[in-house]
Amino acid sequence: MAFPHQKFGLPPGAGPDISWTPGLAAGLDALSAELLRWNKTHNLTGHRDEKSVAIDLILDSLFLVPYIKGGSLLDIGSGAGFPGLVLALAVPELAVTLLEARAKRVSFLKHAIRALGLETRTRAILGRAGEGALAGETFATVTCRALGGVQESLDLARPYAEPGGRIILPRGRKDQARAEELGLTVAAYRLPKPYGERILILADN
Fold first, then answer.
1. Whole-angstrom distance, CA of residue 41 vs CA of residue 80
2. How far apart are CA 126 and CA 105, in angstroms?
């Protein structure tokens, strides 16, 4: 199936290069509904309506799919599961670990994993990167969204990336210059207004 650009407010032909299926659509809708339901009492994110969740969280996460490497992924600072839960839904063969330091959010992550039927290949862990969490474990892909500066995020992620693995840092355009200073690859993409242009910083281990 073609990517549903209208659903996300994109022009024809725009959108991430992914395989869109009825199962993926249903899973993403269910994730959005659960997040909004929990947000009413638990304040997991600042997103309060379907449109902002669809564009700023789900669509933003889907742009990572073409850059995933290997069969395992660690999402550091997963928050309410973005991008990790979206990637678990979009890549059926991917084993996903969600690392989050706040117990309230881990409770949601565990609930969402069960509700989405992802228990066999997705887990939520309470802990912080670099403080003993998942000691000795490595992953083919590591994502780290908005945790400090570019170098700080790389330093957090590198111990968890297996040899030949990849680190993906979703960032705003303002971090492009710093990424280029560090010799990293940058992939740009655009979300509908008012969200605008964003980048993925890629570092192969």
1. 14
2. 9
Angle at 100 between CA 94 and CA 101, to 5 degrees: 165
Instruction: Please tell me the pTM assigned to this model.
Output: 0.96
Q: Count of CB atoms within 10 A of residue 78's CB?
A: 26
Pairing of strands 196-204, 185-191: antiparallel
Decide: residue 138, CB within 10 A, 0-12 exposed, 13-18 middle, 19+ buried. Answer: middle
Structure tokens at 110: 């565990």
In tens, the pLDDT along 54-85 reads: 999 999 999 999 999 999 999 999 999 999 99
Render pLDDT for 175-188 as a digit per residue (tens, 0 to 9): 999 999 999 999 99
Identity of the amino acid at 54: A
Distance CA 123, CA 4 (A): 29
Q: Are strands 95-100 and 139-144 parallel, antiparallel or unpaired?
A: unpaired
